[in-house]
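Hi W., the uracil complex you wanted:
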Amino acid sequence: MIKEKLDSLEKEAKNCTNCALCKTRTNVVFCDGTLGAKIMFIGEAPGDNEDKTGIPFVGRAGKLLRQYLDETGFKKEDFYIANTIKCRPPKNRKPTKEEKCACESYLKRQIELINPSVIVLVGATALESFIEDKKLTITKARGRIFDIENKKFIPIFHPSYLLRQHSLEINSPRWLFKKDLEMIKSLVEKSC
Ligand code: URA
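Structure:
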């Protein structure tokens, strides 16, 4: 039943013309992951590789995220990945308010159907879409747990930021990223 509903939502998204990105996209990037996953990762928007393949987080940043997930012990069946918007903004610019609005209902319905207990907000765009506090930067918010409507929302750095940060020292962005993923993993295990 849920699978049919998700399939039909994906079909709807694939035919979407709610905003101008439908004219420049190659593929609608709907999701990658497992039905029944307790944890959902929400990124910003598809990039070039995602647009070409139709799969989220498969470019350089995506590979880095997946490598960290693997190293932390997450299995593919543990998570579901989607983005705030489903079509690539030209030149990888940030999604506009209008594009986010046009896409909002797909993400909302995806969350309802997957019904994860933990939602990881990957980067500032995802953070801003769920937590309305202009003063709350990703640096301040990362690693914190926000309880909203019976779900735990946890912001983390975006992996594209980590591509420019190479240090592994204590308190470096990569070190914090790993700590955040470890905390999320143990949180999900406790809630099962
Ligand atoms: N960055 C994102 O936020 N999402 C993707 O799917 C790829 C890169």
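Strands lie at 32-33, 39-43, 79-83, 118-122, 146-148, 151-156.

W.
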